Amino acid sequence: MRVAQFIDHTILKPSTSLADIEKLCGEARAYGFAAVCIPPYYVRDAAQLLEGATPKVATVIGFPFGYSHYEAKRAEAIEAIDQGAQELDVVMNIAAFKSNDMAYLESEIDSLVQVAGPAGAAIKVIIESGILTRDEIIKCCELYRHYPIQFLKTSTGYAEAGASVEAVRMMRQHLPASIEVKASGGIRTYEFAKQLLDAGATRLGCSAGIAITEEEKHTKP
């Protein structure tokens, strides 16, 4: 089992250039990463660069804070899919969640599923587990388990705390087998990546994917 197959090779900094995207896509091909995760602006470019290749094109919706209206997220999702995105990493409206407005969150995920489902695009809902309590993480699992999403994802990488083994384990325990767990935020070493995979993650979002895979080569089984 190679760690590369679980990695979303990621670059989401505001200063990302087309040259960065070209490099990222080339690396994703070379290393056999699961996907590239890139800013929406570059989806069309990445789709062209990865045409016929194994890595998927993923982009972010409502990123990084999640508090844009769900109609805006829906519009983002439609545009991203039209341009070639195969996976959508969507930030949950954390403000609505903290306000216990579950009806709003249901409307949000409903609107996105209606867009992504017919297009065959995967949805990864980012709950920002690093700023949620244990009970809040479980509450997210209880909400999203009822929707046809493909992943629940720990973090954006922009909050105070990123992925943790404990959060991944808890998410895996409270989600149905049909929903996978993506860990992201602060994954910089092979050891940590392996701990997250062992805890139940099946996708890892990181910008250090090459360093992690190279480290794996020099780690004794």
Distance between the termini: 11 Å
Order of helices and strands: EHEHEHEHHEHEHEHEH
Question: What is the fold named in CATH at topology level?
Answer: TIM Barrel
Largest sheet, if any? 8 strands, parallel, barrel
Overview of the molecule:
The chain is α/β, with parallel strands linked by helices and 221 residues long. The protein has one domain: Aldolase class I (TIM Barrel), CATH 3.20.20.70. Helix content is 44%, strand content 16%. The protein contains 9 helices and 8 strands. The protein has helices at residues 18-31, 43-49, 70-83, 94-98, 102-119, 134-144, 165-174, 190-199, 209-217; strands at 7-10, 35-38, 56-61, 87-91, 122-126, 151-153, 180-184, 203-206. The chain has an 8-stranded parallel beta barrel, surrounded by 6 helices. The longest helix has 18 residues, at 102-119. It starts with 6 loop residues before the first strand and ends with a helix.
